[in-house]
Amino acid sequence: SYFVSWVNSSNRRALPPAGRILTRLTSKDLGPFIERGITRYRSDYRDTDVFIFREILNTIVRCDRVLTTPGGSLLLAGRSGVGRRTAIGIVASMNNMKLFSPKVSRSYGIK
After folding, report:
1. Hey, which of 27, 43, 60, 97 has its CA 20 to 30 A from 4?
2. How far apart are CA 99 and CA 90, in angstroms?
3. Across residues 25-54, what is the average pLDDT?
4. Which of 2-6, 15-19, 91-95 bottoms out in mean pLDDT, i.e. has the lowest?
5. Has residue 11 got a pLDDT over 50?
6. CA–CA distance from 91 to each of 50, 83, 108 (Å)?
């Protein structure tokens, strides 16, 4: 089972003080929501092939729960190639959020 905020239509308004209402879904029920999110992600950010496997599905659901709570912030770290950037892009698209990713280089610092 997964708990996500995408099911309730009232979730498109401003973030309430207690966060968005979460709804319990099975992995079978979650599939169509993820497919719509991928379609939006492709139109909003970049056209990419996304292979949905358990690890990226869990990352998408966790990102949704964190980013739909007031003051929710997230630091994603892990192996390369597991889809962290894609997962956060899908969640941002599904929740009508703007995604900003700073460019980091050797000379990166506070200016």
Report:
1. 43
2. 10
3. 85
4. 15-19
5. no
6. 14, 12, 27
